[in-house]
Amino acid sequence: MKNEKLLDAIGQINDELIVDAVSNTKSAKTRLFFKRGLITAACLVSAAVITVFVIPFLHKIQEKTNIDTTLPLLTISEMQSDAMGFEGYMAYDISELINANPWNENMNLSTLPVYENVLAYDDNFIVSGMNFDAMRTFLTDIAARLGLDVKTLEITDNTPSEEYKAAILEKTGGDIPDGYFNPTEVLTESNGIKIEVEPDMTAVISFNPAVSLPEQFHFSHYASYEESAAAAGYLSNQYADFINMKNPKMNIHGGDYNIYSQQSYGIEFFDADGSDVNQIINYNFNRAAFYCDDNGKLFLARIFQPDLSHKMGDYPIISAEEAKKLLLNKNYITTVPNEFPGESYIAKTELVYRTGAHEKYFMPYYRFYVELPAAEREGGMKTYGAYYVPAVLGSYISNMPVWDGSFN
Prior knowledge:
By secondary structure, the protein is of the alpha+beta class. Helix content is 23%, strand content 25%. The strands form 4 sheets. Strands 5-6-7-8-12-11-10-9 form an 8-stranded antiparallel beta sheet, with helices on both faces. Strands 1, 14, 15, 17 and 18 form a 5-stranded antiparallel beta sheet that branches. A hairpin with a 4-residue loop joins strand 7 and strand 8 (202-211). It starts with 31 loop residues before the first helix and ends in an 18-residue tail after the last strand.
């Protein structure tokens, strides 16, 4: 069985200045003391040249670029469009697309943190870098929040059975990649609650049977914003220990339509405690989400708590206006199968972190919602495509993206 290969996301390398030092040697007949004298003189002259010319030159370069050389260069991961198509949102007006993103253009932010993704995927999509001890600790913590007796929990992993392995090997003739049968999750089940912790430190909680909300709450796939907010208020009270936040802020997000003109919203929470930067990080990374089934019952919840221990540093960021200039210069990444239609079609801008499993670095981007005139549907339904421009100052990016007319 041949697995689909990942595209190489890092293919561009910065040009570097190469300085060749060429030295001429004297004849072997030259006397040793004279030779040493020349070497000493050369060293003194070199030191003087470095002091008078090179060091001031380097200082001027550093002053001009204002680069912090202690911060490593970052690489932009290539976007992958899945089988569901490109990242697009359908709405009659951009005002319908909402969320509780704490970022706004009036924030006085000069830097934002960048984190290295501790997980890595090979060409066969085999993941490495998981911390199983941390995953088990996280699972136990979630179980305690839900009122389960952690002392009696049986924690296992998803290592397949020998029968399953044998069946796969027989079916494929043994042609499977190394690590295919390695465990990637830890899990437990008790009192109708199943908890699974995935490699990226997402805890998935399944309720069996699904939990009914009181009759006055309308918790369904196509509930209105007001109905979703009311259900979220109930969930925040009923599951306060599970959410486990100092200042949980409701994030009713979405508002886009499907092809049947049905509008939907999602329910999440993030901790709005602390500084602007803390809130931005919590909004993008540390979240709690609740999901209904087809009968309007709570059947699934998730706690997102990715490993952010590998901090690359606090990187200078550009403004939204500077990012728009880069967008117009085609310095963006996107899965939209349309060329950027022009500045007049920019409908909305927000700052987000791209947190996908295959991102090499979790870093901030400006996400531009751009109306796609060629994709407008009957009745005035518009499609807004997402175009991403790195928010980190370009001097710290090794492969600033440039749209080249092709899409993934």
